[in-house]
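Incident log, structure service

09:12 report received: a user says their structure output differs between two submissions of the same chain.
09:20 pulled the input from the user's history:
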Amino acid sequence: MRNVTIRQLQIFAAAAASGSFARVAERLHVTPAAVSFQIKQLETMSGFALFERVGKKAVLTDPGAALLGYARIVLQALEDADRSLLALKGLAGGRMTIGVTSTAKYIVPHMLARFQAQYPGISIHLRDGNREEIFHAIGRGEVDLAVMGRPPENPDLAAAAFATHPSVIVAAPAHPLAGYDRLPPGILAGEPFITREEGSGTRRLMEGFFAAAGLVPRIAMTSSSNETIKQAVMAGMGLALLSRHTVGLELGIGLLRELPVEGFPLMRAWFVVHRRGMALLPIHERLRGFLLAHGQGIIDALEGAYGALTSR
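09:34 re-ran on a clean worker, output below:
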């Protein structure tokens, strides 16, 4: 494997991720034949078949999976070296990739808009996913910084809290429980709930609340989309536990009602997270500092704007 090229490793890693040589060719602006040729060269050097066809998908063989781990290490080392050299230049422009959990995407764009007004030369790519997906993206070095609720306990991650994060129970305005001033947690036992998928921070929070209350949730529907959950609640399918930052607009204009359940809101925090072993560029450090200094104020202003809608 001494003669392998970086380009071959890039093509191999991309093919492993997509399972399609044609998609890799389109993404890298080469022909499918060129992708197949580079993979074949790798297979010749390694002495193993690296992919096998399962239906229309190219799936890694065991030797391919073993090689992929080392390919990622090599490619990540080159990326880290590039970052370190750029950091020495004090680069203030360029492109950054920010990871956001599905709930954080309701507040982070407002923060980035303020930040980008100060640094208009910065191009920002937002990558969203659930808690587990963003965690793995950080570990693989695919995002520069991430914003999420409770980050996984991992010594390789550096996390700093920058704002409070309340979660509430919401219902359709016509729901029978929406007219009460105070509700005991036990009243939720028989109510159908629309929930996030396994692996999301919101789902973990809901399960923790029900377990602590000695209750078992009645799950009517599961979705990976906060928007779908909100629509289902508005349609009267059930209740949902969601971040207040996810439903601020709907609460403000009366499409949803926050239920006054004892013990709510459940308070967490928003964190800005990065991989300890990854050298942050000066612009990443500035964004991290900006979130720590101004994140809570931007959220407060946003909630104030939503709250003002109620009195109109």
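09:41 both user submissions now match this output. Likely a transient worker issue. Closing.
09:42 reviewer note: The longest helix spans residues 282-310. The chain has a mean pLDDT of 89.
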